[in-house]
TrEMBL record:
Superkingdom assignment: Eukaryota
Organism for this UniProt entry: Stephania japonica
Domain Xylanase inhibitor C-terminal as annotated: residue spans: 36-92
Protein name (database record): Xylanase inhibitor C-terminal domain-containing protein
InterPro entries according to UniProt: Peptidase_aspartic_dom_sf (IPR021109), TAXi_C (IPR032799)
Length: 98
């Protein structure tokens, strides 16, 4: 299905996912000028609490298919750097067909 969507539609879906993720994450959004996020070309990062990340601070990501739901493990869609105090949504758009 993803490959059949136009590039414009994929960008819209990714933008929608990021907005929802931001609304449901119980962490403050990190500044855009943080070197970690620009170095990895990741545009949605959150400040970690002093005790690190917990699964309750970041929403679950569940794909709903006909007849089945697939909940992804946290490490499949986020990247965290405790020393930098950041966790980021590790999902970006693709310019080609998958």
């Amino acid at each position: 299905m993803w490959a059949r969507l136009s590039r414009c539609r994929r960008i819209q879906l990714l933008s929608w996912l990021k907005r929802l993720f931001k609304l449901q994450t119980k962490l403050s959004v990190a500044d855009d000028d943080r070197p970690y996020s620009s170095r990895l070309d990741i545009d949605l990062c959150f400040n970690l609490p002093s005790d690190g990340i917990s699964n309750t601070a970041v929403p679950s990501l569940i794909f709903h298919f006909e007849g089945a739901d697939m909940e992804l493990p946290l490490e499949n869609y986020t990247v965290s750097d405790v020393s930098a105090g950041l966790t980021c949504l590790a999902m970006e758009g693709s310019s080609g067909n998958l």
